[in-house]
Specification:
single chain; about 450 residues; alpha/beta; Alpha-D-Glucose-1,6-Bisphosphate, Chain A, domain 3; TATA-Binding Protein; six-stranded mixed β-sheet; five-stranded mixed β-sheet; 14 helices; about 40% helix
Length: about 450
């Protein structure tokens, strides 16, 4: 198990665990590793979300890059997929996103992206870790004449806005109806300005909520992890669709006109069917993760579509997509990667594609999404210290209870136990035919793990 990087970069409590000193060292080590794999002086883009700690971490990160001799372009507050898009478009050496995604404001994180706009592979993260623990950080210092240069280019976000608008404007303009309305929940996060500008430019009738970030209200009872208020708003205001992003804007979940959640699995089903009908579903395949609902497998089989599943993490979905030329993949949580457009999960892009399909079909969102019937799932997170997250595998009582439940469920359900790659949690998911039964069984496993490992 790696010391610093999890499944989505480095993520810790800001200023106490993710200290300015650690951030400075991560930047120096990153610049060194990136330079090894480049023939030129690195130019690194930095974007961040709206967390209070963002400017602190950005300052430390910038100092580390400059100290090694790398140049920095600061993009300011911008969605993660905007950074990925600009990294590729501007042909930068790499980029960094300062964000803890869907976590509460006190967390923050560091995600490196390659010059192709994709999260750097595990191998490069491991190289950075080796340098961090080598005791040679202080030696990675540029000569005074080679110190890097930093500049601020918050105007570059307009390039990302233009990309989103141009991708969809012709189709949406053709099919848009006056009575079509969207409610946007931007989670007081990185999409709070961009989403409003994109939807305005596309002429979509929309209302927006949770778009007043104050540094500590990011994801607070809002966004893709807290859908209750959006559901209520959509139904009460008779909206055609509700859209919710997470704090850094790489996830999208939706709400249909009846207040029912449209999760990542449903979005994958809708998108893959749409692409297949247009002859654009590469290799006739969806890439999902082991956490995807069994209903997605059933949908794929019924529609003559192949489905391949990876371990949890959008980086692993993307790796599989790149390896075999697939163009659609994602996670139940709302990370949806459409490789024809952007090499990372993109919440705004996903929402616009969903809107385009709904408008083209001329049907309600509920009807569009009825193509997949999902199995009930029960998910529980158990708080466990990071050093104990893997110990459940060594406890006979825990493993026997998991094995017995798996046998009981058979082909009509699953049990998945997964240590979180970003938080001190063990995630428990039980899937079956009856909601009440699987909730009871998931709680029994959670209680056992809590008693044994807390």
């Amino acid at each position: 198990m790696r010391k610093y990087f999890g499944t989505d970069g480095i993520r810790r409590i800001a200023n106490t665990e993710l200290t300015p000193k650690l951030v400075y060292q991560v930047a120096k080590a990153g610049a060194y590793v990136l330079s090894k794999h480049s023939d030129e002086v690195p130019t690194i883009l930095i974007g961040r979300d709206t967390r209070l700690s963002g400017t602190l971490i950005e300052s430390a990160m910038t100092a580390g890059f400059l100290s090694y001799g790398a140049n920095v372009i600061s993009l300011g507050v911008i969605p993660t997929p905007g950074v990925a898009y600009l990294t590729k478009k501007l042909k930068a050496t790499a980029s960094v996103v300062i964000s803890a995604s869907h976590n509460t404001y006190d967390f923050n994180g560091i995600k490196y992206f390659s010059n192709k706009g994709m999260k750097i592979p595990d191998k490069l993260e491991e190289e950075i870790e080796e340098i961090l623990d080598s005791g040679k950080i202080d030696d990675l210092t540029a000569h005074p004449s080679k110190i890097g240069i930093a500049e601020t280019r918050q105007d570059l976000v307009e390039e990302y806005i233009y990309f989103l608008r141009k991708t969809f404007e012709e189709n949406i303009e053709t099919h848009l109806k006056d009575d079509f309305s969207v409610a946007l929940d931007v989670a007081n996060g990185a999409t709070y300005k961009v989403a409003e500008q994109v939807f305005t430019k596309l002429g979509i009738n929309f209302s927006i909520m949770n778009n007043n970030p104050n540094g500590v209200n990011i994801n607070e009872d809002c966004g893709s992890t807290h859908l209750e208020k959006l559901k209520k708003y959509v139904v009460e205001n008779k909206c055609s669709l509700g859209i919710a992003y997470d704090g850094d804007g790489d996830r999208c979940l939706a709400i249909d006109e009846n207040g029912k959640e449209i999760d990542g699995d449903t979005i994958l089903a809708v998108f893959s069917k749409y692409l297949k009908e247009k002859g654009k579903l590469n290799n006739n395949t969806i890439i999902a993760t082991i956490m995807s609902n069994l209903g997605l497998n059933k949908f794929a089989k019924e529609n003559g579509i192949e489905i391949k599943q990876t371990k949890v993490g959008d980086r692993y979905v993307l790796e599989e997509m790149l390896k075999n030329g697939y163009n659609i993949g994602g996670e139940q949580s709302g990370h949806v990667i459409m490789l024809d457009y952007n090499p990372t999960g993109d919440g705004i892009l996903t929402s616009l594609m969903l809107i385009q399909i709904i408008l083209e079909r001329g049907l309600h969102a509920s009807k569009i999404c009825s193509i997949i019937q999902k199995y009930p799932q029960a998910q529980i997170n158990v708080k466990v210290s990071n050093d104990k997250k893997m110990l459940y595998k060594e406890d006979t009582e825990i493993t026997e209870q998991i094995e017995n439940l798996s046998k009981k469920l058979g082909d009509n359900g699953r049990v998945i136990i997964r240590p979180s790659g970003t938080e001190p949690l063990i995630r428990i998911m039980v899937e079956g035919q009856k909601q009440e039964e699987i909730e009871t069984e998931a709680k029994q496993i959670a209680d056992l793990i809590k008693n044994k490992l807390y």
